[in-house]
Q: What sequence folds into this?
């Protein structure tokens, strides 16, 4: 993993708690955290809350591909509503949406030393879009995670 | 006048031409663009070591990283378009390689069983079998809502049997055959190489796809 400022178990705990806390705080079904691997540009989903299976643990996307890859490559949030409709490209290019049966999602970048290296995603299995207030909550959660990670360097 | 044989020949010709074009693009990307970029990368590395000015050296390093990423992308794209191992190492090897990519992309685990000795089959037949298996696995990732699938190859004296099973949510085959062009295309592709494709599925009780092909 890329972030190794503090100890591995402390990082694990921080990331896991951030996902669980976000799930509790928001009106959503799934929260996941993806990080860019330390070797190579690939991105893997490491932590999740509200997951319906363990497929996320095996999913690795390339830089620029999938939601996580796109958010990291652009450094900007990404919103999906009514999946698999209204998307760029094919549904198969969104593995986390398929793996967790999500209909709506909002994903934000997490910066490390000023560079996007992670993604915090919140998703719903219903057609109800992620509300504006939940989008702010997830942006705040990502910002909090950034601060914690950058301060542990 | 019965136009069915003519229609079959035409479909077969279109699919074959399409596959040949995909293979050509994959080769061009891998052997042409990929090789040129690799040469550029080597040259850039040499230039980077010769630069003494720190800011320029760092800039050259960033360019090298970008070039390395691009080379990787080109390689991935070429392999995704046409599996290179299919011609060199055979169908089972190409399927194994695809399963690795499939699991790391969709998180689904596929158990592969291979019984008997792999027979020599033509490029046209092996790419068709590969595409049909690929379509079956992609459909599982897309619709089955399951974490595991199983693929069994049985090489018999006079025929090859392939079974692809999942214990996912299943579907109504007849309705899906009309709606999903992918399922109909799998059967059509098998039919065009003299094989057969049978799809059995039950709601909440998984799906089983059986592909058979006479071996001469």
A:
């Amino acid at each position: 993993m890329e972030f190794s400022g503090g100890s591995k178990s402390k990082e694990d705990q921080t990331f896991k708690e951030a996902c669980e806390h976000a799930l509790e705080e928001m009106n959503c079904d799934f929260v996941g955290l993806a990080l860019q691997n330390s070797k190579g540009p690939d991105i893997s989903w490491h932590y999740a809350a509200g997951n319906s299976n363990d497929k996320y643990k095996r999913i690795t996307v390339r830089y620029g591909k999938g939601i996580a890859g796109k958010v990291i490559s652009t450094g900007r949030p990404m919103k999906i509503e009514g999946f698999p409709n209204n998307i760029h490209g094919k549904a198969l290019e969104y593995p986390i949406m398929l793996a967790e049966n999500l209909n709506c999602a909002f994903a934000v970048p997490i910066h490390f030393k000023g560079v996007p290296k992670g993604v915090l995603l919140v998703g719903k299995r219903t057609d109800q879009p992620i509300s504006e207030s939940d989008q702010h909550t997830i942006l705040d959660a990502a910002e909090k995670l950034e601060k914690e990670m950058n301060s542990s360097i | 006048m019965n136009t069915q044989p003519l229609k079959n020949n035409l479909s077969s010709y279109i699919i074959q031409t399409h596959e040949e074009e995909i293979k050509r693009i994959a080769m061009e990307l891998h052997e042409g663009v990929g090789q040129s970029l690799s040469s550029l990368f080597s040259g850039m590395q040499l230039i980077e070591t010769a630069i003494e000015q720190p800011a320029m050296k760092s800039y050259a390093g960033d360019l090298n990283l970008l070039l390395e990423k691009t080379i990787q992308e080109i390689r991935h794209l070429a392999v995704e378009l046409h599996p290179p191992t299919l011609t060199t190492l055979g169908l089972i090897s190409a399927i194994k390689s695809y399963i690795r990519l499939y699991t790391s992309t969709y998180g689904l685990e596929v158990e592969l069983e291979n019984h008997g000795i792999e027979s020599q089959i033509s490029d046209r037949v092996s790419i068709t079998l590969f595409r049909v298996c690929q379509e079956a696995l992609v459909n599982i990732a897309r619709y089955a809502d399951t974490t595991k699938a199983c693929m069994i190859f049985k090489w018999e004296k006079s025929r090859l049997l392939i079974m692809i099973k999942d214990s996912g949510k299943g579907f109504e085959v007849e309705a899906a055959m009309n709606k999903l062009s992918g399922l109909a295309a799998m059967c059509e592709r098998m039919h065009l190489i003299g094989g057969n494709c049978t799809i059995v599925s039950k709601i909440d009780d998984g799906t089983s796809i059986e592909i058979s092909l006479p071996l001469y």
Summary: Chain B touches chain A through 16 residues (CB under 8 Å).
